[in-house]
Structure formats: structure tokens, C-alpha cells
Amino acid sequence: MIRVLLADDHQLVRTGFRVILETEDDLTVVGEAADGRQAVELARGTEADVLLMDVEMPGLDGLAATREITAAGPTPAVLMLTTFDRDDYLFAALEAGASGFLLKNGTPEALIDAVRIVARGDALLAPELTRRVIAAFARPKAQGGSPRQAQLLEELTPREREVLVELAGGATNAEIAVRLHLGEATVKTHVSRVLTKLGLRDRTAAVVFAYEHGVVTPGPSRDGPRG
Predict the structure, then answer these.
(1) DSSP output for 1-30
(2) Keywords on this record (predicted)?
(3) What domains lie within the chain, and their CATH numbers?
(4) How many angstroms separate the CA atoms of 162 and 149, rounded?
(5) First-to-last C-alpha distance (Å) of the chain
(6) What are phi and psi of 145, to 5 degrees?
């Protein structure tokens, strides 16, 4: 059972999310918060797998709350949702450690799929957001990173570096397996090792890292990190 927390300052929105999620046998809502401070306290005091976090809330906003939650540990994974299609929100959410970012105008099916993807330890961006993430992170920062980050990259094997390049293009495990002529179980192991060696939380962080540190350069992207 995937345990979900809801953080949104509108009761009707929280109720709608609860109704959508609890139509599924493998999803259950275990708590609700009406602002960012409540969300932080709820995340600390409730065993949960995923936290659906609104960006704009009174007091402590969703971005600041996400930074506090992700700094404290690996769970719950934060899935940001907003009605505002703004780049600054998107990039700030990823830098805060969110595992995914979706717009609220998506379908119920997209929300359900996103929760499952984030819960299993993968990461998700709405496909229409991926090119903007790549372009924005790549332009100002593709300068090789710090000496420590360069050292981390050197710890990757040639095969793991190939996997990182595929992750940066948004490839799924199945797609990586085909392109690199590997089994999916082997790909999953390589992905796990890449994230561990680079000290990254998830696949979205791998995309950002790869572009920030010049592993890949901007160009036509695939459909974004999906798991």
C-alpha cells in the first residue's frame, strides 16, 4: 500500500485528491496539511511514501517546506503540484529536492501514475516541462562542476557513465536496456549505482547533475525522467 500525504491550503483540492487517489486499491491518504509548516510536521510524524505538495501556501510555502523535508531524510518523496506554469517554481522545486513536478490541470490518471512512479523511488516531470529544465540548468552551469563533483564522475565506470547520459535524455529503464543491449535488471542495478556514487536522490537529480556538469549538452530531448 502506498501511503500519501496531501498539502494544499484549499480543502476542496485536498478532498478532490483524496477521492481520486483512494479509488485505487494500492493508494491511501494518511494525512492532510493546510500549509507548509503543517506539511513539515506531518512528514516528520507520519509514515508515508509520497507527499503531494502545493507550491503556494500561507506561511511557509511549499518550496521552503520541501527543502526542510528533503534535508531530513529520503522519505516521503515530494511530488510538487501547482496551477502556475512558471519556470522559477519548477527549477526551485527541483533544487529543493522534489522528486517530481506536475501541473494541476493534468488528468486523474496522470496524478495516480505520478504517485506510483515517485513512490517506487523514481522521479517524474510532466513531459512538456523537460526541455525547459534541461535548457535552464544547462546554460548557466555546464562548466564541469567543482573538483569534488569531477571526482565523483571519475568514480563512474564507462558503462555507468553511458547510463547517466541516457538518464539525462529521460530514457526509461526499458529504453536504456534496448539502447545499451542490457537486461532491464542490469540497467536497474546500474542506475542505482550511478545515483549512489553521485549522491543523488533520484533520476530527476541525475538529469540536472548531468547538464550542470557537462556530461551532456543541450539538444533535442526525449520525454523526460519517467522511471
Answers:
(1) -EEEEEE-S-HHHHHHHHHHHTTSTTEEEE
(2) DNA-binding, Phosphoprotein, Transcription, Transcription regulation
(3) 2-121 (3.40.50.2300), 133-212 (3.40.50.2300)
(4) 17
(5) 19
(6) 75, -175
Q: Which amino acid is at 160?
A: E
Phi, psi dihedral angles at 11 (to 5 degrees) = -60, -40
How far is 29 from 22, CA to CA, in rounded Å?
Answer: 7
List pLDDT tens digits, range 49-76. 999 999 989 889 999 999 999 888 777 9
Bridge-based pairing of strands 100-103 and 124-125 is parallel
How buried is 162 (Cβ within 10 angstroms: 0-12 exposed, 13-18 middle, 19+ buried)? middle
- The pLDDT tens digits of the residues spanning 159-209 come to 999 999 988 877 888 889 999 999 999 999 999 999 999 988 777 778 778
